[in-house]
Design goal:
Structural class: mainly beta
Number of strands: 49
Radius of gyration: 35 Å
Mean pLDDT: 82
Strand order of the largest sheet: 31-37-36-33-34
Number of helices: 1
Strand content: over 45%
Largest sheet: 5 strands, mixed
Low-confidence stretches: 1-21, 308-313
Distance between the termini: 90 Å
């Protein structure tokens, strides 16, 4: 089971657990009769559901201490369960089964399956009460109205296994034949992403950072949305069927699979340890609620609850965004928890990137055992995306504690169309994309339109202030004005009213000068502010005499030299 708390995802950047601890998984006894569970889901620390074979639905209201069985009119195998509130829930299963409840599961009703669904529906995922997705045997589906209606959003050409969405638009999906897809429009369209393994489970930590698993027990991660991948766990031969990270502490994750495979990470998935405390039964699904609390279900009535145990446990969480602005000083504020029995004082903090330490801070004070303390480590400005580690050590801590997190640093807030080259007298539309708001600075009044139509007389640079994801920047675009003039090669000043004068294009009322020369380079006529109508050359010299047929040369210049044209013309009488 992949789980998402959209509120928390945006507010945890660093979190650390002392790496010597492990989760202590305790076996629960939900029922007296044997059951095979496929999925487990907890809405909060107390309210949870598990579903499985033969229509099995069980529910707990006290964190798994006791369970009650819920029923629906049927016995088909149930594959996945999800609740968007503590009352509104969904279940999908075999034979196109689609169940809904509006009273916490006291009553489950069979709803009409999504149009076009095939024999089996495998997995659910919701980002809020309205937006959800279903993976199916032949099709996948999307709802934008809380499950009342569904539309087909096919990704792989066949079954889809697992889906994860960061919000209503941005998500990932896995499918047959090694398919890994990414969408930015809620699943209406998908882009296939190359992956070194055939992924089954997928979990997106951010827009760029994604973890995938496969049927051979491998785990891979990408920090650039799939352009490159790093192998984190080598093949064990055991199918990994469940993957979950704690929403409020994305450093803590658990992967489960066949024959008791139980892998744990406390550094966001970079390293994993094998926990053998649950035996050799097949584990199917895991749901991490917090960094220390989670639940696992599997075959033969297996449900486990985790309690993270360590007498020397210190936890810190960075209260900030996992996407920040380049070169903008940002407060590093952490909430530090001393879970030890003794007091903690004089703590040194070091923030580092891949090149080494970039920020130091020494905190002096006192944190008693079991006490929380908010600590401001000062302002830090960074200029590139990557892994940033935060380490701390103190005179009463016998080990160093380190955590790292991939931080997405925004540098290019938006893209302004251009540069543009236009002919003198023409207009062009310039627009900005990729930002949340924009302000064109050349307007005499404030303008927030995403595009502007400009008609510059001269080549001009236009500036726009852009704001995206809390970052503010300035971008610009050049509009180059070209005369685009096709020189006149001949005219006939014979008084017939046709082609009697030299016509120049794209004058646009600019101050200019025109000089006429004969073949020997003598200046024979000149004009100021030539305009083709009241100021023009009709084949005469400076004294008004008619010039002979032949070739003459002219130079046209605007006052600011933005347009300079040198050419020749023939007089034909």
């Amino acid at each position: 089971m992949n789980r998402l708390y959209t509120t928390f995802l945006m507010f945890v950047l660093f979190s650390s657990l002392h790496s010597s601890g492990q989760h202590n998984w305790t076996s629960l006894d939900p029922l007296s009769s044997a059951a095979t569970f496929e999925d487990i889901f907890f809405f909060d620390e107390n309210n949870g559901w598990a579903v499985g074979a033969n229509g099995m639905i069980i529910h707990t209201e006290n964190g798994g201490l006791t369970w009650t069985q819920q029923t629906y009119p049927g016995t088909a195998g149930l594959n996945d369960v999800w609740f968007t509130t503590d009352q509104k829930g969904y279940i999908v299963g075999n034979d196109e089964l689609y169940l809904r409840t509006f009273d916490g599961g006291n009553t489950w009703s069979i709803a009409s399956p999504p149009l076009g669904s095939s024999s089996h529906l495998y997995e659910l995922f919701f980002t809020d009460e309205q937006h959800g997705w279903i993976c199916g045997f032949w099709h996948s589906f999307r709802t934008t109205d809380g499950g009342d209606t569904w539309s087909i959003v096919n990704a792989a050409s066949g079954s889809n296994h697992n889906v994860f969405f960061l919000d209503a638009d941005h998500g990932w999906i896995t499918g047959v034949s090694g398919y890994l897809g990414h969408t930015n429009d809620g699943g209406v369209t998908w882009t296939q992403v190359t992956c070194p393994i055939e992924p089954y489970c997928v979990y997106a930590h951010s827009a760029d950072e994604v973890t995938v698993t496969n049927s051979l027990g491998e785990i891979y991660q990408t920090n650039d949305a799939g352009s490159t991948w790093i192998q984190r766990v080598t093949p064990s031969g055991n199918f990994i069927s469940g993957l979950s990270f704690a929403p409020a502490n994305l450093n803590v994750g658990v992967a489960v699979g066949a024959t008791g495979l139980l892998l744990e990470t406390v550094d966001g998935g970079k390293t994993w340890s094998n926990n053998s405390s649950v035996g050799s039964a097949n584990l199917r699904s895991v749901d991490m609620i917090t960094g220390s609390l989670g639940f696992i279900c599997g075959y033969t009535e297996l449900i486990f609850k985790s309690e993270f145990q360590d007498n020397d446990l210190y936890v810190f969480e960075y209260q900030g965004l996992d996407t920040i602005c380049a070169n903008v000083p940002t407060d590093v504020i952490i909430t530090f928890y001393n879970a030890g029995s003794g007091p903690l004082e004089l703590v040194d903090f070091v923030l580092a990137d891949e090149t080494g330490p970039i920020h130091y801070y020494q905190w002096t004070g006192l944190i008693q055992g079991g006490e929380y303390k908010d600590i401001n480590l000062g302002q830090v400005a960074v200029n590139h995306s990557g892994y940033y580690s935060l380490a701390f050590a103190g005179d009463s801590i016998d080990v160093n504690n380190t955590s790292s997190k991939y931080i997405h640093v925004l540098s290019d807030l938006a893209e302004v169309s251009g540069p543009h080259t236009i002919c003198s007298g023409d207009s062009v539309e310039i627009s900005v994309t990729g930002s949340n708001s924009y302000l064109w600075l050349f307007e005499t009044t404030d303008s927030l339109d995403e595009s502007q139509i400009v008609k510059p007389a001269l080549s001009t640079t236009y500036f726009v202030q852009v704001k995206s994801n809390y970052c503010v920047g300035l971008d610009s675009v050049n509009v180059i004005v070209d005369p685009c003039t096709e020189p006149v090669t001949a005219f006939s000043p014979n008084g017939d009213g046709v082609n009697d004068v030299l016509i120049l294009d794209n004058l646009n009322g600019q101050e200019n000068s025109l000089k006429i020369y004969n073949r020997w380079g003598d200046l024979i006529n000149s004009f100021t502010n030539y305009n083709n109508t009241t100021v023009f050359w009709d084949g005469t010299g400076s004294n008004g005499e008619s010039l002979k047929e032949g070739t003459y040369y002219y130079i046209f210049e605007t006052a600011d030299n933005s347009v300079v044209l040198s050419s020749w013309v023939q007089i034909v009488r």
